[in-house]
Design goal:
With 469 residues, the chain is an all-beta fold. It contains 1 helix and 30 strands. The strands form 5 sheets. The chain has a 22-stranded mixed β-sheet that branches. The protein has a two-stranded antiparallel ribbon with strand order 1-2.
């Protein structure tokens, strides 16, 4: 094993501090009023209020579409980004330092394991943590390519639906491909030390709460680190959420995240030093996040690169007064706010003929665009957490750049986002498909300028097997 056995502190619950915007939201005039208190959104029991659908398992999405625009993978990586040669094997960091050779133990040959804290008492070599993990979380099977090279690990859950918690904290991630596919009803919750490390990892789950999880980081490893996350497989027609008090850090590389039904949550696509919002990871690349379903009080941090965030606003069954997200092209605190040199685009999956307005009240079928004063407005509840702290309005950056405010109201008035905030995003797209329009964001003036020659983003659809039994 790689270090002294962990104590019970590893298993303490960690509730992500995602805060809530303290800024103003519009009323019937430009005068504004203070933001109403957000609904608590307490976690629901599994499957409560979810669409079962005739002939489908409870909570499954109806008739998932075929994959579109998804990269062609290979046997080592979901996106084809990793093509190791024979000389790369055996892969350093793929096996646990102590339990990687099947040596004789007190009860016969020891298991061959990925890196982890597998002993409760390291001096005793008791494998107690491994037995806890095996019995309550699952076991690992080796991923072997056609040439017989061991290149990664797949978790085989011990129960269905999978429950990745408790002893799950003992797994430290490997340098190869780690696949944690918890299935269409699996959950991950109640710990803050998860990290899959190097490699093009895949994480799939349906529900989460009280968790920080890293699919890669500069601390635990970030080589070959193009990761795929599919978070949320169910459909919540009651307006509920399945991803709550959760932060997913994808770290360096070119990462794709598909998430649905989230509240009081964050996705960090490229903050540095393990996900600090005051750092931008220099090894981060172009990332993608697609947000579907019910989406409330969330943060997206882009990090480096040309990032794309796609928000299907009209998916919402809105049960709260506002939706109120924040989008950051880079980090969300200090110098990291303006440190990203890429061109970041927010794609709003709303009607392409949505009317742009510059004054409140925002009419049905309208998108409000307005600038800010250049003052710094912090989100107070998050300021003590270096992995979560952010600003609502983020002061004045280089060249006079400022946060831009948007608000959308659906044509039938059933969805009213309230103000949401873009900092260091350079483009916004209105609509998908025919008629979609792309605009340059002038965040000094707080206005949009249509880019007639820009190519609109056509969001990809992940293969349906990622949320299949």
């Amino acid at each position: 094993m790689r270090r002294q056995g962990r104590l019970a502190a590893l298993l303490l619950l960690l509730t992500t501090a995602c805060g809530g915007n303290t800024a103003s939201n519009p009323t019937a005039t430009d005068g504004g009023s203070s933001l109403p208190r957000r609904d608590s959104g307490a976690r629901r029991d599994s499957g409560a209020g979810r669409d079962s659908g005739a002939g489908r398992d409870a909570g499954r999405l109806p008739d998932p579409p075929p994959a579109e625009g998804f990269p062609e993978g290979n046997e080592w990586s979901w996106d084809g980004s990793w093509e190791p040669s024979d000389a790369d094997f055996p892969l350093p960091g793929l096996l646990d330092d102590e339990y990687g050779d099947g040596h004789a133990g007190r009860d016969g040959p020891t298991p061959v394991l990925p890196p982890g804290a597998w002993d409760w008492d390291d001096a005793d070599d008791d494998l107690a943590n491994w037995r806890n993990f095996r019995d309550n979380v699952g076991r690992f099977e080796q991923l072997v390519d056609t040439a017989g090279h061991h290149y990664g690990w797949r978790l085989v859950p011990s129960d269905s639906p999978a429950d990745y918690t408790g002893a799950a904290a003992y797994f430290e991630g490997s340098s190869g491909t780690d696949i944690l596919d918890l299935g269409p009803e699996g959950s991950i919750h109640s710990f803050g030390d998860g990290d899959l490390g190097d490699g093009p990892d895949v994480l799939v789950f349906d529900r989460s709460w009280a968790v920080h999880f890293r699919t890669g980081s500069t601390g635990a490893g970030s080589s070959r680190d193009d990761d795929l996350v599919v978070a949320g497989c169910g459909n919540d027609p009651d307006g509920g959420w399945d991803i709550e008090t959760t932060t997913i850090h994808t770290g360096p590389g070119h990462d794709w995240v598909f998430v649905r039904d989230l509240s009081r949550a964050a996705v960090d696509l490229g903050n540095g030093d393990g996900g600090r919002t005051d750092r931008v990871d220099p090894r981060d690349g172009d990332d993608l996040i697609v947000l579907r379903g019910n989406t409330h009080d969330f943060r997206v941090f882009g990090g480096n690169g040309d990032d794309v965030a796609v928000w299907y606003v009209d998916d919402n069954v809105q049960t709260t007064t506002w939706l109120g997200p924040n989008f950051f092209g880079g980090g969300a605190h200090g110098d990291a706010l303006w440190a990203d040199e890429g061109t970041d685009r927010l794609v709003l999956a709303i009607a392409a003929d949505t009317t742009l307005v510059t004054r409140t009240p925002t009419p049905p079928g309208g998108l409000l665009v307005r600038g800010t004063s250049g003052e710094l407005m912090l989100d107070d509840p998050t300021q003590d957490d270096v992995y979560a702290r952010y600003c609502v309005e983020c002061g004045t950056g280089p060249g006079g750049r400022r946060t831009v405010i948007l608000e959308y109201v659906s044509p039938d008035g059933s969805i009213r986002t309230g103000y949401f905030y873009l900092t260091a995003f350079e483009e916004v797209q209105v609509g998908i498909g025919d008629g979609a329009r792309v605009y340059r964001i002038d965040d000094v003036a707080g206005t949009l300028e249509e880019l007639a020659d820009a190519t609109p983003t056509d969001p990809p659809v992940p293969p349906p097997e990622h949320c299949s039994p």
